[in-house]
Amino acid sequence: MSQNPLDHPIILFDGVCNLCNQWVQFVIKRDPRALFRFASLQSDTAGTLLRQHNYEYPPLQSAILLMNGNLYTESTAILHIVHQLREPIQLTGCFRVVPTFIRNPLYRFIARNRYKWFGKQTSCMLPTPETKMRFLD
Fold it and tell me: Following DSSP, what letter does each residue of 71-109 receive, concatenated?
């Protein structure tokens, strides 16, 4: 596997959202190949990566996945991510067959309420020493 972090799939997430930070920890625990890299949407790194994909003003309520030259958002990003994780969570990737016009309204409902339900941090999370190399900012 390449040593260049930009050769890995990159997950961009809201760095102050408790749910988003729990999601990142969930992915790390189920990614034994250390495939994914991470950056908060609030970071300069995320801004640079998104401009390279002509996606300059992402909503903070969307998880974004940059993989194989493609940019995925909302439920599509989540389903592509879980498909790369170890089983049994990997099996939920099959929900990609459900059309986005059905999946994304549920995703947006959760995203709109995430601070109310899960809370918000005053600053972006700091990775542990073991996972620091997987974070781009």
Answer: EEEHHHHHHHHHHHSPTTGGGGGGGGGS-HHHHHHHHHH
